[in-house]
Amino acid sequence: QVQLVESGGGSVQAGGSLRLSCAASGYTYSNYYMAWFRQAPGKEREGVAAIDSGGSTRYADSVKGRFTISQDNAKKTLNLQMNSLKPEDTAVYYCARGGGWVYFTFRNDPFKLEYKYWGQGTQVTVSS
After folding, report:
1. Model confidence at 75, in pLDDT bands (50, 70, 90)?
2. How far, in Å, CA of 23 to CA of 95, rounded?
3. Which among 4, 1, 11 is positioned nearest to 121, based on CA atoms?
4. Which of 48, 81, 116, 125 is within CB 3.0–4.6 Å of 99 for a Cys-Cys bond?
């Protein structure tokens, strides 16, 4: 069955960097749209970064210019490079996969699309 396993979380001081990875298995890793979400204590889950079936990316305004989403199809891995981290980035980060192929347009919000599969999450803590 489809499995997504995140890694790379940890504790870092403000201004530091972390790189999250999501290892995918149980399916032919090919062109599904995918995304990173996060959820802080007491807050709703929010989209952070997404990549569509053609490799186009979208970011939440709060992370633009600091985070970069990428994927390695050969290694079946989705990555999130996080730089210039802030205390407000503290959250559990989840990797998610869509149910099919989608190409992002101005009409669709990538974080409101259906994400059929989710990882278990990895904690990121940023101290001031």
Report:
1. confident
2. 9
3. 4
4. 116
